[in-house]
Design brief:
Elements lengths: L1 E3 L13 E3 L5 E5 L2 E7 L1 H4 L4 E7 L5 E5 L5 E7 L2 E5 L2 E5 L4 E4 L5 E5 L4 E7 L6 H6 L1 E2 L15 H10 L3 E2 L24 E3 L5 E5 L2 E7 L1 H4 L4 E8 L3 E6 L4 E8 L2 E5 L2 E5 L4 E4 L5 E5 L3 E9 L6 H5 L1 E2 L18 H7 L3 E2 L2
Parallel strand pairs: 1-2
Antiparallel strand pairs: 2-23, 3-4, 3-13, 4-5, 5-12, 6-11, 6-14, 7-10, 7-12, 8-9, 8-11, 10-15, 16-17, 16-26, 17-18, 18-25, 19-24, 19-27, 20-23, 20-25, 21-22, 21-24
Length: about 350
């Protein structure tokens, strides 16, 4: 296992397990915002990329679309407005949005300090940010971005990357609908309110699925897992699925191929296919994102656990009925538990 920190922010050049300290990754400034690549195609075997974008209240990022790439936005701080097709919503911390391929979208940060984290599939598209941005090694984003807009590089990026800028579209006021509280039945762009989605309980933890195979054409899965101190997930391995964890609150002890470390808020855990891994929650309340490509293992709690009606984890462990059916999970999903 590799452990990296902001002082040695360069990502590994191969697909290997690692824990990236908050503030690390490949970082650059584009139109006043800092983009951090936490996991890229090189680190995921081309399966996915995980990117954090943070910046101040500023002008909108222009409309664009992707032929094949899928975008997700999970707000961790501040406030942003997202345009997606004919709809636009204001997103606050915990809110989520999925943008399907071919959907024209744009966004604008509304908070004085806003951050969003998301998974992009397939891996490799994140090289757009490397090509267009200016390298930046500060702790957040520059107080004042004096670099001119890279119009030439943005234009050339359309030839090199899966992006097409839509100059025929302009921002419009947020449309009147509320954020959704349930997942759509098929692939389409959608907005999801914080703490909503499909919830299941297992090993004392609650998993809320934000996006699964049905919503993403089988390309990716994304969920929030939360639980109390002492809750854990036993050692297991995925044959073909690449997984990434991103800690939101608390402390998460992770073991990757036998090597253990503690991940804190803002830390990112890269778990390639074939890596035997386990975790234990060490904070009084620990909450983290799990992101995977292809889709499937985000449904582990639904397959092996029980439906859960509440947005908070149980106040007793084990909870009534919390007896995971691990054999069923192994027969249904890309997962094998290791004794």
């Amino acid at each position: 296992m590799t452990s990296t920190s902001p002082e040695s922010a360069a990502l590994p050049t191969t697909t290997t397990p690692y824990v990236l300290e908050a503030g690390g990754g490949t970082s650059g400034v584009l139109l006043g915002q800092t983009t951090r690549i936490l996991v890229g195609g090189a680190q995921s075997g081309g399966a996915l990329a995980v990117v954090a974008v943070l910046g101040p209240k500023d002008r909108p990022i222009p409309f664009h679309s992707h032929r094949g790439a899928r975008d997700t936005f999970f707000v961790t701080r501040g406030q942003m407005q997202l345009w997606s097709g004919q709809e636009s919503r204001v997103l606050n911390p915990g809110d989520f949005a999925y943008v399907a391929p071919g959907t024209a979208h744009a966004y604008q940060f509304l908070g004085n300090y806003t951050e969003t984290v998301g998974v992009i599939t397939p891996g490799g598209w994140e090289e757009f940010f490397v090509f267009t941005s200016n390298p930046y090694h500060g702790p957040a984003f520059p107080p004042v971005d004096t670099s001119p807009p890279p119009f030439e590089r943005l234009g050339r990026a359309q030839e090199l990357h899966d992006v097409a800028f839509r100059r025929d579209l302009s921002p419009f006021p947020a449309t009147g609908g509320e954020l959704g509280e349930t997942l759509p039945g098929g692939e389409e762009s959608y907005f999801l309110r914080a703490d909503c989605g499909t919830r299941h309980v297992m090993f004392g933890q609650v998993c809320t699925v934000l996006a699964g195979g049905a919503q993403t054409g089988g390309a990716l899965g994304m969920a929030v897992i939360e639980g109390p101190r002492g809750a854990r997930m036993p050692a297991h391995v995925h044959r073909a699925t690449h997984e990434v964890l991103y800690v939101l609150n608390g402390r998460l002890r992770v073991t990757l191929d036998g090597a253990g470390t503690v991940a804190y808020p803002g830390d990112c855990v890269n778990i390639p296919a074939g890596c035997v891994h386990a975790y234990a929650l060490e904070g009084g309340s620990t909450r983290f994102l799990t992101m995977n490509a292809g889709a499937g293992i985000e449904g582990l709690f639904a397959v092996a656990g029980e439906a859960w009606a509440y947005p908070v984890f149980p106040d007793q462990t084990p909870a009534p009925g919390d007896q995971p059916d691990l054999a069923r999970a192994e027969g249904t999903l890309d997962i094998a538990f290791v004794s």
